[in-house]
Amino acid sequence: MSLKLFALTGRTALITGSSRGLGRAFAEGLAGAGARVILNGVDVARLEIAANDMRAAGHDVLTAAFDVTDETAIINAFEGFDAEGVAVDILVNNAGIQFRKPMLELATADWRRVIEANLTSAFVIGREAARRMAPRGRGKIINIGSLTSELARATVAPYTVAKGGIKMLTKAMAAEWGEAGIQANAIGPGYMVTDMNEALLSNPDFDGWVKARTPMRRWGLPEELAGTAIYLASDASNYVSGQIIYADGGMISVL
Ligand code: GCO
């Protein structure tokens, strides 16, 4: 019955940065709802291990190794999908990096590196995906934002700027591609237990701050984002576009 609205059977989802962390959890979640998933990363060995793990669990998994900051590699990957008859129905722009340094000490090259990896990548990959979704009249793009899409924190300026940009890129995609039948939305995770956050998790002061600041009094687990991703990837959200949904234990709603 209504659960069919959430089924992803027959759909193919490309999730960038999905050999581990949040991307892996998004891939597992979408595959669990029936999608064929394309895992992406730069480390081919790690990608194959993740793909084989998921295949052993019965999922339909392809891999596409490319660097999300390399436009030529991105275009080659999409041309490869075209050649193999693989149509990307769902794109999760998840890949990203963090670089923590006070702005007074931040080199311009590091600023650019973070913006390229977290924001420009989502534009380029989104454009390549949408160019192919538009003629089919259907597509779902899910960009991964952050609490820093709304709020700044000292030492992560370029990440904050990129994630604020992700929120507005999502609206720009919704504005331009809605008439082609594409919905673009974003997920804004709170503080999650991932490798990227290892330095924060192991810092007692930071850990205490996250727990005090989050109404649910704990960090989030990557798999707790899967439901929001399935919703935004599925027919259940067919008239939802341009939104950013915070899955953050309530953090962004309180002082
Ligand atoms: C940081 C973290 C971020 C946060 C995220 C919360 O350094 O601030 O690495 O990625 O986890 O911004 O939404």
From TrEMBL:
Keyword Cytoplasm: no
UniProt cross-references to InterPro entries, sorted A to Z: NAD(P)-bd_dom_sf, Sc_DH/Rdtase_CS, SDR_fam
UniProt superkingdom: Bacteria
Any Pfam family: adh_short_C2
Keyword list, A-Z: Oxidoreductase
Gene3D superfamilies in UniProt: NAD(P)-binding Rossmann-like Domain (3.40.50.720)
Family label: Belongs to the short-chain dehydrogenases/reductases (SDR) family.
Protein name, as recorded: SDR family oxidoreductase
